[in-house]
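Run folding on both entries below.
>entry_1
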Amino acid sequence: PLCWTEVPQKISVLGRQRNRWMRGTMETLFKHKTLFFNPRYGNLGMLGHPYWSFFEWLGPLIEFFGIFYFILVIGMGNPDWPFYALLLGFTYLFSVFYSSWAVVFEEFTFASYRRKRDIARLIVIALIEPIFFHPLTVWFALRGNFNYLIGNISWGKMEKKGFADKKKVKNHITS
């Protein structure tokens, strides 16, 4: 993982967090635009910056316009339902694979999960994430794009609860 953060307790706080993350991503990408596919910067220029540009910044925009286009095609009549069903199935399976791979990768690199049940629970969550959680994060990212473009770049207030047992968290991270 790139970093760890405290999970917001409310959807509204999650929305503000993801909005800020998108604005921070855009600010960083634009500030360091000379890195984009620049071999002088090695992996950062050839892999890191392009990944963040295409997947983290532009990904939600592409998803939104894809959904908008799909609705437009339905409104115009005669959509290619087999194609859209195949596309939806592929997108869902890719999302599940991507999330599951992240869980497996984290387990092999950091061994963060003490019980097999925790890993199984995360895999089950990967099955429902594309349906419930992902659309919310796309919406929050779109709002972040909009806020950045209109110049609303204040970070705002973040409500944090804090970790319940800081010693336990410290031991978990350092062990």
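>entry_2
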Amino acid sequence: MDKLRETNGELKLLDVWSQTFREDLKKSVKDRDEWRCVVCEAEKDLHVHHKIPRRLGGPNHKDNLVTLCGSCHKVIETADINKAFKKCLRNYKVNSLSNTSHNFFNQDHKLLKSQVEDTLENLLFELEKKNEEQFVQDIIGVIKKIDIIFND
């Protein structure tokens, strides 16, 4: 009542757009969501999205906030469910495929590195025992194997 007297009886609605959206709250939401988009699991270009939009009275509270990547956030904001579903599903497939292929590449790379190191070590060991012509043939064989590995 005192507030009404102070404003000569005028009621002022709360302007949710002027409320500050604290950085520590954003960080807390991203921490909770493990710094990944909760839709497609992307780990880059992360935004914090209001489940209930601010314009509809959605509060700046962590229970109303979720981490989205920029791509999912943009399409979800359109409120076009079909478009959002297709785009976010595509993002998820791309992210899960790139994570899988990255892991396979790392494993293959480590195995290949080990094989090349072993072969070079054996060549150096054999160098002391073989003549120059045989050594050149062995090196050509290794180069052919490397060419097959990297060009197939």
